[in-house]
Amino acid sequence: MITTKLLRSSTFRLALLYTGLSVGSVILLLGFIYWATAGYMDRQTDETIEAEIRGLAEQYRRRGLTGLSRIILERISHDPNGASVYLLTNKDSSPIVGNLDRWPDEPIAESGWTRFRLVEWGSDKSEEHEARARTFRLRGGPRLLVGRDVRDLEATRRLILNALAWGLAITAALALGIGLLVSSRVTRRIEAINQTGREIMEGDLSRRVVRDGSGDDFDQLAANLNRMLERIEGLMASVRQISDNIAHDLRTPLTRLRTRLELARGDDTQQTKEAIDNAIEDAEELLRTFNALLRIARIEAGDRRCDFRELDLTVLVEDISELYEPVAAERNQCLQSRVEGEFIVSGDRDLLFQALANLVDNAIKYTPEGGRITLSAEAGDGRIDLVVSDTGPGIPAELREKVFERMFRIDSSRATQGNGLGLSLVRAVADLHGATIELGDNDPGLRATLRLRH
Description:
Blueprint: H1 4-8, H2 10-78, E1 84-89, E2 95-98, E3 113-121, E4 126-137, E5 143-149, H3 151-201, H4 217-263, H5 270-300, E6 309-312, H6 313-330, E7 334-338, E8 344-347, H7 349-366, E9 372-379, E10 383-390, H8 422-432, E11 436-441, E12 446-453
Parallel strand pairs: 7-9
Antiparallel strand pairs: 1-2, 1-5, 3-4, 4-5, 6-8, 9-10, 10-12, 11-12
């Protein structure tokens, strides 16, 4: 069965173009053959009639009207069912002799040529067919018509036309069939490359384009793509290894620093205690930053897909709302959740919880006292939207994509708390789940929508 993808492919359109060119070429060739063959047969018929006319005219000059009539009768009697047609009439067009009972009604060209229908009566029915003839007036007034029954010529013409039509149909069918076979093969090869690309985009960098060993253009393309993918995978592994090494190398001394500072708290000096507390807080912030970097790297690597399970987003939203209600209350903010019904999706609950928590945490952080934060789940056409909206200052439209970059912060002075990784983690979680994260205007405030496929 021809698929819609095949019909929409460029290779199928190329096959149609090839079919059209082939059919056009065959039409021109077969048309020339028909024109040449039919024309030759018509010329042969006309030359036969002309030769008979010249002979009869010569007999009329030599033997007169009586001799001409006798010759016509002899020719008719010798071939009663033949293809020749004769009619000799007097001045008032009354028949004298011939195998026609009357003069044809069809118009006669200035050259004397005409075509008319002959009716041949049989035992049970009549048969009508075409004849071609030439007429001229003899000296003294009699008129002579000499022609040929062209039924065989017409039958041959129809035979040629039928053969040409069948040849054209077979050519078109073969061209289209071959084009479809070629298109189908090319489409399968391209789809194999696309499928590999989709699997790689979903996080499996080990996938490679399958080669068939033919050595053709597609096989060479697959080989080049595989070498490129190996290079990309090596670079990604190198970057990931470097990031992991940096994070691990720094996490260990920072952890050790925090431990030693905890032990140094035994000093009774208030100033020393404050300094130690500040150092511990800084160390914890650094640890949070590196832990976030490590988690984003692992999420982007696609390692967490094995943890996907069916989960109810209603419960997830209620848990987050319950967790952050006391935090919002401390800032004199109103945190509301609106969820009705069940919203079942397949995903990693911990990661979706973290992503939604980051959005709520940002809303609480940037919404002024007395503001409102709303957390809701909405069902759409084949999707479920998790929406966090607030009445804070919002994000300028030109920065709504940049805020997803790692370590990017709207506050260029970096005076506010945070490491600029919260929304980066949300984007990584969304990509892992095949979802999208959109930031829009809540008028006033920001509306963040995590759009999951249902």
